[in-house]
Amino acid sequence: MQLGMVGLGRMGGNMTRRLLRGGHEVVVYDQSAEAVDQAEQAGANGASTLHGLVTTLHPPRSVWVMVPAGDATERAVDDLSGLLSPGDTVIDGGNTYFKDDVARAERLSARGLHYVDVGTSGGVWGLERGYCMTIGGPAEVVERLDPLFDTLAPGPGQEASAPPSTARRGYVHVGPAGAGHFVKMIHNGIEYGMMQAFAEGLEILRESGSDRVDPRHRYDLDLHAIAEVWRHGSVVSSWLLDLLEIALREDGDLSAYSGYVQDSGEGRWTVQTAIEEDVPAHVLTASLFTRFQSRQEQSYAMRVLSALRHQFGGHVEQQKTGGGP
Known about the structure:
Elements lengths: L1 E5 L3 H12 L3 E5 L3 H9 L3 E2 L3 H7 L5 E4 L5 H11 L7 E4 L5 H12 L4 E8 L4 H4 L2 E5 L2 H6 L1 H7 L18 E5 L3 H29 L15 H8 L8 H12 L15 H11 L5 H13 L5 H14 L12
């Protein structure tokens, strides 16, 4: 198929290369001329403007937007809507808030344009491993775009005898506009919780070697070896654990990392949605708040707690230590 790709960052650039390897024709645009040049060297057709990209594509056109969520995506979709023709499709593969997808789909539909939202997971490994995708939009449009999704996806799973399903190949149409990013939002919320569980578990293992522990119960553990053995037959084996093993292999003490943890926004939207639906989401909420705490040095709230303990009980603050061996 032919596709326009707007945005050639870590995800968009690699997705372009994977599509080219699959035999598709990709017309690319990015604000960085260097990024466009690199894509052209990989076999893409470069465009210097959005208008040039649109005029290079033949109808019905399909343009995939892969730029940062928020204002950048909103501008790109608005600009494209003024250039495309009825019957063309805009695809947003970023981390967009699903309610914004619904509004965009309605706005584009009034101009005769289709809108498809794709929750895309795979990160920097997607070029080789493929991308897991949850897709929202009109069924007939999603079906027409199937060759693109099939190329980007990881491919057939292990259970070849199971009933045919695109889900087993790594992508699935989950519903109308917004549904794709809604499912990806919850995926990321779950991801926060899983990451937090690994983080807390490994810290407990690490602190078993601390001088705060009774010498009879003190262990000097090889955390990399533990992560490695868990990867083989354990119920907690996962790609996240695979990535953790790589990180510990490269830097056993993780000394190169500051511990300052950002969030993409999807964790916040997950918690917000849980509140709207009256769903108790203890783990997901706690994991999000822990990321907030990671960015604080000498938190005011912690100073309040320390001050109160001192006032009512005369408790003196202990000097902070690095913790663990």
